[in-house]
Amino acid sequence: MCGRFTLKTDPETLTEAFPGFTMPEEMAPRYNIAPSQKIAVVPNSGENSVEFFQWGLVPSWAKDPKIGNRMINARAETVAEKPSFRTPYKRRRCLVLTDGFYEWRSEPGSKTKTPIYVRLKSEGPFAFAGLWEAWYPSTDDDPLLSCTIITTEPNSLMKPIHRRMPVILEPDDYDLWLDPSDQSPKQLDGLLKAYPAEEMEAYPVSRLVNRPSNDSPDCIAPAEA
User: Fold this and answer.
1) Contacts of 163 (CB under 8 A, 6+ apart)
2) Domains of the chain
């Protein structure tokens, strides 16, 4: 799964990395983004601009928005079939902006897990494949806009760390993923693959990241040996 990530890249650098997308003029660096928080996404609305949606997808038919707490990830293998995700997969896709994510590695003979920070070797920003949804508390209220991150089988870098990894989209795939028109699984499934391991790196960090209230550069600092 993907349960924490970062977006510390400044808007100017994000604009360079995502040409053609409109970024906020200001955006505070985030070192420990957690579920239920607002995250930066580019929905397939046709505007190619960053918006902030709640992390944890609330299906349009849900009776209680708390269901979003269990919908932070969608499995690539079943996203086209699950009732919560199949319509967003067809119609409501988004990029989730990031520059790194955390996973927790089990250690042999220990009940504790080691937090690992994963990023591109370039240390630049990238985008997860996401889905979004609009949930209306009532006909008179504004919608709650929420999203989820799609995960897939791990690459060789991630396999010793965790059995899943988030889908990282190639820039050449952004146009198809953000196409506002309906898309079929046949058109999209090929995008939901593990990112090349040789372009990524990972290292242990301190357990500061275990607490969502800790949101500082210390979270991504390499752990002391």
Assistant:
1) 153, 154
2) 4-220 (3.90.1680.10)
219 is catalytic: no
pTM: 0.97
The one catalytic residue among 51, 94, 103, 219: 103
Mean predicted confidence (pLDDT) in 131-159: 94
| pLDDT tens digits for range 181-190 | 999 999 999 9
Cβ neighbours around 221 below 10 Å, total: 14
Told to judge if 2 belongs to the known catalytic residues of this protein, a careful annotator would answer yes
Cβ burial, residue 150 (10 Å; 0-12/13-18/19+):
buried
Catalytic residue among 2, 94, 147, 219: 2
Enter the tokens of residue 103.
């996973």
- Compute and round to an integer the Cα radius of gyration of the chain: 17
